[in-house]
Amino acid sequence: MEQKNEKDYFDLRSIIKSILAKWHWFFISIFSFVLVAFLNIKFTPNVYKVKSIIKLKTEESGASKILNQDIFNDSKLNLEDQIIEIKSTEYIKKTLDKLDFGISFYEKSHFADKEFFKDNFPLVINIDSSINQITGVPINIKVISATHYELEINGEEIDLYNFKEGILLENIIPEINIKNTQEFGAPIVLENLGITVTLLGDFDKLIDRKFYFILRHPRSLIDSYSSKLNIELAGLNSNILTLSTEGKVPRKEITFLDTLMEVITQVDLDEKNLESIKTIDFIDYQLAGVSESLTKVERDLESFQYSTTNIGESSALYEKRDELDAELNNLNVKLNYYKNILSSLESANDVTNFSTSSSTDIAEPLLTNLLINLTDLTNRRIQVGRTATEANPVVQRLDLEIRSTKNQLKEYLLGSIKTTNIMIEDVRVRLNQNNQMIKALPSNERRKLGIERQFEFTGNTYDNFLQKKADAGLVLATNSSNWKIIEQAKMDGFGPVSPNKKIIFAIFIFLGTCFPLLLIIITDFFNTKIRNKDDLRKISNIPVLGTI
Length: 548
Prior knowledge:
Blueprint: H1 12-21, H2 23-43, E1 48-56, H3 62-67, H4 79-86, H5 89-97, E2 103-107, E3 114-116, E4 123-127, E5 133-135, E6 139-143, E7 148-162, E8 167-183, E9 187-190, E10 193-199, H6 203-206, E11 210-215, H7 218-228, E12 230-233, E13 240-247, H8 250-303, H9 312-346, H10 365-385, H11 393-439, H12 443-478, E14 483-491, H13 501-526, H14 533-539
Antiparallel strand pairs: 1-13, 1-14, 2-3, 2-11, 4-10, 5-7, 6-7, 6-11, 7-8, 9-10, 12-13
Helix pairs in contact: 2-13, 5-7, 5-8, 8-12, 9-11, 9-12, 10-11
């Protein structure tokens, strides 16, 4: 009779019997894996997620609506650029400068060390900023009595930081080993360590407990928060940003996000206020000169003996000259404005500071749009250039658009300069004709009308500057940030996001089940011994008569 090929024979019933017979393997395996999962969770510090919500307002401010001006209001705000700016070193540094995060506080534990928020730490640490301090190395403190503690420091390749001057010295100390007893409240003055440790709370609860703290230089803090700060848009066309960060101490992360949002709103408001203040300072400077001229003209007008000559015809001539002078002045301002922009374009200077605002009385939609477009492209190029190289397609596309916009602006300016020169020449011809007619008037008449004309012109100029100053003051008084805090920072969920206990236990229970099952299958597959009648039937068709 032919023997059965045992390699082609798979007896599921035999496998199940082996599993049932070795059920204790599964119990031991699952118990072991669950124990490993439990230890993994215990030795892994809890990480909490904190988030806040902030909105970018796009509506006009109340002052802008009243004044109907664009000089103080820019609604062309790119959210992607804003996100890059918020995550920049400048914003993170301004936030951390407002916080006392230069020291991290911990307590040693049998499992994962516990990090404290500074207000909850039972020790107060004061740093002597006049000397270089060791950073990045744990400074261990063990409370041994109500008046003394044990200090221990061990580390290699240690950086030094001067907190007073803000200078980082890397890898200055190759190795440090310090262990001694110190008194609470007494300054520690070593070569590269100057601190004072003060005990808070009940000594009985702190006896033999081991604490430590780490001095962190600002650059490491900035890098840390820049990497873990996450900013997301609430939607594709939304103006709402969700800011989030993760850390071991929820209160610390909440404090950071709340302060960051305050910095965002304050920086935006400060930029607006600075623009208004500069405008008011400029107007005050102009007013001082105009006021002096107005006073002089008033004195001249009072001391002049008015003639009785009929001045109806001469008044018309002087009014006409005033109109022509004003027109010529406006054309010259416009011509100089065009030439300044063109000069900046040809010398590759920044033209984003030019404005076609109401302060210059130049309102040309095409020129305004070209300048705004060039400003927007230039700002986007600067933002992208911080993180991308010249070979980046986005950078190359922006450079191409900037060159194209500059060429369009240059062509427009050349045409405008030519047209303005023609208009200026025409006004000058008419002004000369009018002046010739004025010269034919009696001298007293000309003098009186000249003083009146100067008085009226100076007074109008003074009133105009006063109105501009009032407008700028109203804008300054009603300025508000484009950012609005929708929701203060709070913990996301009701517990830590890491470690995820459910997932970890599920994975380890699954592994604890698979391990003995795989072991049983492999053992059964490679076992060639005949242990019972079933094993004999697998390899032979000969009937079994009996067993001994």
